[in-house]
Write a structure and sequence with these properties.
Elements: E1 12-16, H1 19-26, E2 30-37, E3 40-47, E4 50-56, H2 61-73, E5 79-88, E6 98-106, E7 127-129, H3 132-148, H4 151-156, E8 162-169, H5 177-186, E9 190-194, H6 197-207, E10 211-219, H7 229-250
Helix pairs in contact: 1-7, 2-6, 3-7
Length: 251
């Protein structure tokens, strides 16, 4: 299905997971003005001379799906970029790394035996792909951003990396070693877990709108607390997300 507003100028929608991340993105917009709708505040502005929308996703799959639907059907977004944090579950995915999704899956979707586990009923899909070209651009921007921000290595105590692959989403905050191990055993190629991306991907797939998802890894989705999370948002996730978006828009 084509985008809802094919005659409008191409508009990039930026979805942030947390208020601190949205604030970082809003600081890059020129002429940002709020438009309230459905208990959300959507911001219109420009970045690198291009129309941009920015909004908080809300927490969880339903909230994120509603936000994305409004971005496309009401505001006319022609591509969507989700920026946020996630827990790392893949081998070698560590705190401070960046994961760029090439596919997204709802790990808590299970309509078996009517449908295979993880498959979204009546779609024939369990893995919703991100747009390859858009994702390539986000991956390049992520690599360049990490190279430019050497202080991230000092903050996390290691040299961070960019990974690309499967990201999981579910309406449950994964924060124990047992849960993470179970996800790795069931979906061994998964790199990260969060609560919104796969719902956003399903909506974008339905509308035929290109999607990219980039996540900073704030923890290993287990019982251990690795860092000061507010400081991570302020000093790592927010600045990295802002610069990745700037690089993508300026490319």
């Amino acid at each position: 299905m084509p985008p809802a507003h094919p005659t409008r100028s191409p508009t990039t929608a930026l979805i942030a997971a947390l208020p601190e991340e949205l604030d970082a993105l809003l600081s890059t917009l020129e002429g940002a003005r709020p438009e309230p709708l459905a208990s959300r505040t959507f911001w219109r502005g420009t970045l690198a001379g291009q129309p941009v929308l920015a909004v908080l996703s809300g927490v969880g799959k339903v909230a994120a799906a509603l936000t994305t639907t409004l971005l496309v059907s009401h505001f006319g977004a022609t591509r969507v970029l989700f920026v946020g944090v996630a827990g790392g579950i893949g081998a070698g995915v560590q705190v401070g790394d960046i994961v760029v999704a090439d596919a997204l899956l709802q790990h808590d979707m299970d309509a078996s035996p009517l449908f295979p586990r993880h498959e979204v009923p009546l779609t024939g899909l369990s893995r919703f792909p991100a747009d390859a070209g858009f994702t390539d651009a986000v991956q390049r921007a992520s690599i360049a951003t990490l190279q430019a921000h050497r202080e991230v290595a000092a903050f996390v105590g290691r040299t961070p990396r960019v990974h690309r692959g499967l990201v999981l989403s579910g309406d449950r905050f994964v924060a124990t070693a047992a849960e993470s191990t179970a996800l790795r055993e069931r979906l061994p190629d998964a790199l990260a877990v969060e609560m919104e991306g796969a719902a956003v991907a399903q909506v974008c797939h339905a509308f035929g709108v290109p999607l990219a998802v980039v996540r900073s890894i704030s923890d290993r989705a287990d019982d251990a607390a690795h860092l000061d999370f507010p400081a991570f948002l302020r000093q790592v996730a927010g600045p990295l997300g802002r610069e990745i978006v700037q690089r993508v828009m300026q490319a």
